[in-house]
Amino acid sequence: xxxxxxxxxxxxxxxxxxxxxxxxxxxxxxxxxxxxxxxxxxxxxxxxxxxxxxxxxxxxxxxxxxxxxxxxxxxxxxxxxxxxxxxxxxxxxxxxxxxxxxxxxxxxxxxxxxxxxxxxxxxxxxxxxxxxxxxxxxxxxxxxxxxxxxxxxxxxxxxxxxxxxxxxxxxxxxxxxxxxxxx
Length: 183
Description:
By secondary structure, this protein is mostly beta strands. It has one helix at residues 172-178; strands spanning 44-48, 51-55, 122-129, 135-141. The protein contains one helix and four strands. Strands 1-2 form a two-stranded antiparallel sheet. It is globular and about 60 Å long. The two termini are 21 Å apart.
């Protein structure tokens, strides 16, 4: 069931700030031929968990990419009364690692190893400045407020809501015994 957008949210058009095409990104973020990931369809107006968003399209740059060496991106909004400001963020995949003193886990579902389990690395900081000049910095920490796209089971972020709606799947045991696709 598709959830309609709530009238309590107003999407903000950020197209003028987009600086790269998603398909050209690396680190697990790029949209590649043959991708079956649900996020490849995030183009134009979309509703995620009842919140309306305006995504870009493939015709021109469709995301705002920031790298550690870049100057901060400054997004200026018209004066607006807001209770919440909600952004859709993505972060590059970390290289696959095994923590010191641990061996590989397994067998794993879909050969996901232990991807995405590292905690607390600062990914970015969002600074919100009010019209009165006051400012608040909100850190975005890996595995708390954001998570990489490719993760193993149990590596979901603690303080973020997945953009994808809930779904039900067969158990790993049933899937492996039936020969069905695991993902």
